[in-house]
């Protein structure tokens, strides 16, 4: 193989970790992600064997948006005719050409056919080879690394290379490196206040909810405020039990907090808890951080009422450098288990968890920057969101609370490719919100002294996340609305500040100031997800399918009268004022908040 004919996955400026591989003298015990702050330890033993895995490129991914539009565009004669999981699996299975090309290359490189095993789903090739053989094959150098606890792990110091004609058939090779820097699970800004919007108020006893129930909606937003804001008077009329919240890691809820909330706002729900769907051993009764998960659950259960059941995907995260998104996706789609970008050896729940119609995610898990260690991972995850959407699932995610900075740590992108806290730099999006197959929800609030009859403003308690993706191009279904903003309202920023051709978000907005906890788009996402669950209830009662992927419909002319257009506010960060709210779609509040009755009517008018 000539050096000119290689595709490189070499280490960039952006910090990374390496795949953790516990190594004995003769075998590999397990794979999981970890941090290696102490750096290089020594070169890996060339005689140690590793299960080198090639994740093969999927077929027809270039047609994914077309397939989705066929079932999600209101103008399509096939609207609502969602695919079966089997149809999705078969359509995107790697082609025989891909399998043959990679197998042929491996054999030409001296790997005996007996050492090459094709996965049961046809999407991975696995080799049982030595470190020396892997280094020769990948033109890489494997090192052992040590973490703070002294655990030894193996990874490629400077990445790896593949022939150009093979790289198009391979998404990832691992163990090589982990694709993203380990980060804490992030939900909302630390600047957000608890229990209302009073300046400087940071805590209030949870048993004082009655005082907030009596306050105005411009001070503390209750369930009744939300119902009034969005014209939401919901009584279930179908047998639907299909709205799920997602909690990751040690973010847990406390049933006693739910009861305190329900005693004040929904007495007939006292004693009710969500149905647990444990993923990889996720346990809401384990020690953790009780508060933010409670927010999601009390909002969704409170809005949907006792006639609807809420289920909870509690996804375990054993260390901070694992991306729990992979675990959630694998639990919904078994074929994803073997190709999870952050490694699959630690995943045991493979397609064995129930699917639902609406899934709400109040987390931002990775920065949306164009980087070779991040982009392959997030693109694979986003494609999986799209494939699952084909089966009729609506994914809803919070847009973040850092304005145009990365919400988890308020970081901006510097010219050298690194992220830096609270500084000037290019704008950084949030994932999964910026994935085009996810409906991203920004945050609003009732203006001081205003009533629920008035249109809200973009919240000023924290900068609501929004902007343009660096990984995903702008989809056709939002092109006209976004171009209107770019032509008429966008601030005069240098072209390098944000990607004008990227997928724009948020798509919609909802109130981000909760009645009894902290504010954030973490509250906005479950509120909007509850409205979509109620829409599905009405459609099922009319013998129609769930709405599934809703973004093309929301941006269509058929939904033009559904939104309350939010035109006041901005989302400052990165040394700028960010973007400004404007008539029509904007990167602060999206299309605006919704009038539920109009939203329901628009969806009921579709096949």
UniProtKB/TrEMBL annotation:
<keyword id="KW-0106">Calcium</keyword>
<protein>
    <submittedName>
        <fullName>Subtilisin-like protein</fullName>
    </submittedName>
</protein>
<feature type="binding site">
    <location>
        <position position="565"/>
    </location>
    <ligand>
        <name>Ca(2+)</name>
    </ligand>
</feature>
<dbReference type="GO" id="GO:0006508">
    <property type="term" value="P:proteolysis"/>
</dbReference>
<keyword id="KW-0645">Protease</keyword>
<dbReference type="Pfam" id="PF09286">
    <property type="entry name" value="Pro-kuma_activ"/>
</dbReference>
<feature type="signal peptide">
    <location>
        <begin position="1"/>
        <end position="33"/>
    </location>
</feature>
<dbReference type="InterPro" id="IPR015366">
    <property type="entry name" value="S53_propep"/>
</dbReference>
<keyword id="KW-0865">Zymogen</keyword>
<dbReference type="GO" id="GO:0046872">
    <property type="term" value="F:metal ion binding"/>
</dbReference>
<feature type="binding site">
    <location>
        <position position="586"/>
    </location>
    <ligand>
        <name>Ca(2+)</name>
    </ligand>
</feature>
<keyword id="KW-0720">Serine protease</keyword>
<dbReference type="InterPro" id="IPR030400">
    <property type="entry name" value="Sedolisin_dom"/>
</dbReference>
<feature type="domain" description="Peptidase S53">
    <location>
        <begin position="220"/>
        <end position="606"/>
    </location>
</feature>
<feature type="active site" description="Charge relay system">
    <location>
        <position position="296"/>
    </location>
</feature>
<dbReference type="GO" id="GO:0008240">
    <property type="term" value="F:tripeptidyl-peptidase activity"/>
</dbReference>
<keyword id="KW-0378">Hydrolase</keyword>
<dbReference type="InterPro" id="IPR036852">
    <property type="entry name" value="Peptidase_S8/S53_dom_sf"/>
</dbReference>
<feature type="active site" description="Charge relay system">
    <location>
        <position position="522"/>
    </location>
</feature>
<keyword id="KW-0732">Signal</keyword>
<dbReference type="GO" id="GO:0005576">
    <property type="term" value="C:extracellular region"/>
</dbReference>
<feature type="binding site">
    <location>
        <position position="584"/>
    </location>
    <ligand>
        <name>Ca(2+)</name>
    </ligand>
</feature>
<keyword id="KW-0479">Metal-binding</keyword>
<dbReference type="GO" id="GO:0004252">
    <property type="term" value="F:serine-type endopeptidase activity"/>
</dbReference>
<feature type="active site" description="Charge relay system">
    <location>
        <position position="292"/>
    </location>
</feature>
<feature type="binding site">
    <location>
        <position position="566"/>
    </location>
    <ligand>
        <name>Ca(2+)</name>
    </ligand>
</feature>
<dbReference type="InterPro" id="IPR050819">
    <property type="entry name" value="Tripeptidyl-peptidase_I"/>
</dbReference>
């Amino acid at each position: 193989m000539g050096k000119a004919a290689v595709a490189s996955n070499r280490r960039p400026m952006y910090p990374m970790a390496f795949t953790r591989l516990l190594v004995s003298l003769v075998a590999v015990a397990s794979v999981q992600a970890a941090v290696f702050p102490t750096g290089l330890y020594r070169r890996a033993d060339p005689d140690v064997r590793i299960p080198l895995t090639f994740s093969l490129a999927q077929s027809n991914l270039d047609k994914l948006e077309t397939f989705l539009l066929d079932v999600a565009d209101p103008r399509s004669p096939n609207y609502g005719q969602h695919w079966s999981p089997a149809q999705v699996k078969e359509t995107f299975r790697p082609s025989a050409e891909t399998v043959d090309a990679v197998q042929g290359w491996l054999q030409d490189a001296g790997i005996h056919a007996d050492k090459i095993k094709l996965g049961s789903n046809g999407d991975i090739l696995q080799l049982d080879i030595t470190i020396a053989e892997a280094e020769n094959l990948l033109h890489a150098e494997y090192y052992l690394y040590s973490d703070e606890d002294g655990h030894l792990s193996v990874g490629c110091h400077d990445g790896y290379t593949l022939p150009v004609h093979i790289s198009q058939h391979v998404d990832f090779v691992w163990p090589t490196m982990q694709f993203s820097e380990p980060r804490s699970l992030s939900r909302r800004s630390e600047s957000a206040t608890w229990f209302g919007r009073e300046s400087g108020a940071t805590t209030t006893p949870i048993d004082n909810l009655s005082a907030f129930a009596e306050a105005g909606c411009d001070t503390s937003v209750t369930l009744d405020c939300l119902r009034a804001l969005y014209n939401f008077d919901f009584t279930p009329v179908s047998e639907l039990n299909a709205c799920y919240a997602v909690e990751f890691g040690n973010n847990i809820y406390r049933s006693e907090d739910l009861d305190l909330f329900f005693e004040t706002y929904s007495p007939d729900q006292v004693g009710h808890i969500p149905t647990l769907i444990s993923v990889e051993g996720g346990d809401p009764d384990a020690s953790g951080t009780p508060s933010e998960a409670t927010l999601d659950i009390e909002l969704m259960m409170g809005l949907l009422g006792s006639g609807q059941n809420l289920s909870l995907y509690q996804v375990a995260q054993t260390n901070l450098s694992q991306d729990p998104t992979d675990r959630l996706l694998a639990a919904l789609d078994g074929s994803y288990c073997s190709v999870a970008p952050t490694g699959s050896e630690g995943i045991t729940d493979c397609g064995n968890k129930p699917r639902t119609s609406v899934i709400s995610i109040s987390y931002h898990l990775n920065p949306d920057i164009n980087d070779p260690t991040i982009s392959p991972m997030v693109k694979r995850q986003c494609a999986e969101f799209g494939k699952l959407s084909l089966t009729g699932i609506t994914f809803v995610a919070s847009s973040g609370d850092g304005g145009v900075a990365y919400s988890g740590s308020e970081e901006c992108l510097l010219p050298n490719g690194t992220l830096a806290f609270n500084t000037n730099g290019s704008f950084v999006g949030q994932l999964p919100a910026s994935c085009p197959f996810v409906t991203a929800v920004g945050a609003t609030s009732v203006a001081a002294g205003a009533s629920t009859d008035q249109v809200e403003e973009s919240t000023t308690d924290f900068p609501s996340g929004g902007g343009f993706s660096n990984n995903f191009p702008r989809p056709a279904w939002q092109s006209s609305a976004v171009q209107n903003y770019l032509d008429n309202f966008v601030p005069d920023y240098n072209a390098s500040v944000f990607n004008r051709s990227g997928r724009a978000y948020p798509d919609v907005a909802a109130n981000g100031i909760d009645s009894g906890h902290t504010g954030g788009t973490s509250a906005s996402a479950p509120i909007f997800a509850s409205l979509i669950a109620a829409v599905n209830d009405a459609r099922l009662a009319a013998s129609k399918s769930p709405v599934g992927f809703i973004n093309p419909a929301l941006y269509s002319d058929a939904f033009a009268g559904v939104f309350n257009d939010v035109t006041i506010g901005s989302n400052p960060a990165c040394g700028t004022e960010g973007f400004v709210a404007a008539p029509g779609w904007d990167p602060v509040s999206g299309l605006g908040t919704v009038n539920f009755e109009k939203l329901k009517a628009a969806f009921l008018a579709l096949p």
